[in-house]
Write a structure and sequence with these properties.
Elements: E1 2-7, H1 26-48, E2 53-58, E3 75-78, E4 97-101, E5 122-127, E6 130-131, H2 134-145, E7 149-155, H3 156-165, E8 170-179, E9 182-185, H4 188-207, E10 220-226, H5 229-235, E11 241-243, E12 248-253, H6 256-274
Parallel strand pairs: 1-2, 1-4, 2-3, 4-7, 7-8
Antiparallel strand pairs: 5-6, 5-10, 8-9, 10-12, 11-12
Length: 276
């Protein structure tokens, strides 16, 4: 049983501020320790459920948040920026399941530190008409490789958004968002116990054949609302991206990985406007 883990950070119990997610600084060091414990809980739970190997793709910020030597020994570690498949780098059809650990809600939601890929560029994303966060978008890659998404962890907003497109995925709520900047979190030890149990149950469900690839209807339509019209226009420089409104573009087709690649390329190219 081969498990792929995409780890973000904002969905970790106890994290409610960007200072805990962006280094350097003492708050970030606390945040990355909290994240490390949750990722290790997911790895250990997966192994308890029958996983024989685990690959962790560090998918937050500069994508080098986990101390490699302190990651559970059963796991390989993919880290660093500018990965072609971004948050899903390393996934292929050899995997049996995908875990989304410490994920967060979409831009515009009440989730803790909610955003969708780039909070300074993306206003909203809809997949086949349903508002999605990063879990829903990233599920396109899982679908393309025929791999089920077996686990998602984060706040209640994240869980609700993910369940809308992945109804059979095991979900672990580690905190309740109060506002975008506050939450009622489980104690870190309790959060880790819940993630361990959820990961174990998720792998066991996959082993029993209870989960299939993400039930996303093809051809799929990914609609992206940008913050400005300039960003929407710039996104159309990428093949397959069509402008459908002043600030809206659409990416569609029968190739879910191709849709995801075009979306990630649009995110990358619009950074040139955001950062000037």
């Amino acid at each position: 049983m081969h498990i792929f883990v995409s780890s973000d950070m904002e969905g970790t119990a106890g994290i409610v501020d960007w200072a805990q997610c962006r280094g350097p600084g003492p708050e970030y060091e606390i945040g990355r320790r909290l994240l490390l414990d949750e990722v290790n809980a997911a790895i250990s739970g997966a192994v308890a459920g029958g996983a024989t190997s685990v690959v962790v793709n560090d998918s937050h910020g500069v994508m080098a948040n986990l101390p490699p030597g302190e990651l559970a020994a059963e796991a390989r570690y993919i880290s660093g920026r500018h990965k072609p498949l971004y948050m899903m780098q390393g996934l292929d059809s050899s995997f049996d399941a995908v875990f989304f650990v410490s994920y967060h809600g979409s831009m515009g939601s009440n989730g803790v530190l909610s955003h969708t890929y780039n909070p300074r560029a993306v206003s909203a994303v809809r997949l086949n008409g349903t508002v999605v966060g990063e879990a829903g978008i990233n599920s396109l890659v899982a679908l393309g490789h025929g791999v089920p998404v077996a686990l998602v962890t984060g706040d209640q907003v994240t869980i609700a958004e993910t369940s809308a497109v992945l109804p059979d995925t095991q979900a672990v709520t580690v905190k309740e968002a109060i506002t975008r900047w506050s939450a009622d979190s489980l104690h870190p030890a309790a959060a880790c116990r819940a993630i361990y149990a959820g990961a174990q149950q998720a792998v066991e469900a996959v082993a029993r054949g209870e989960l299939g690839p993400p039930p996303i209807e093809l051809p799929a339509r990914l609609q992206v609302d940008w913050l400005t019209a300039d960003m929407a226009e710039m996104a159309t420089w990428i093949g397959g991206v069509t402008r459908t409104g002043d600030r809206t573009v659409e990416i569609g087709g029968d190739d879910p990985i191709g849709i995801y690649r075009s979306f990630v390329a649009a995110i990358a190219i619009t950074r040139s406007i955001v950062e000037t």
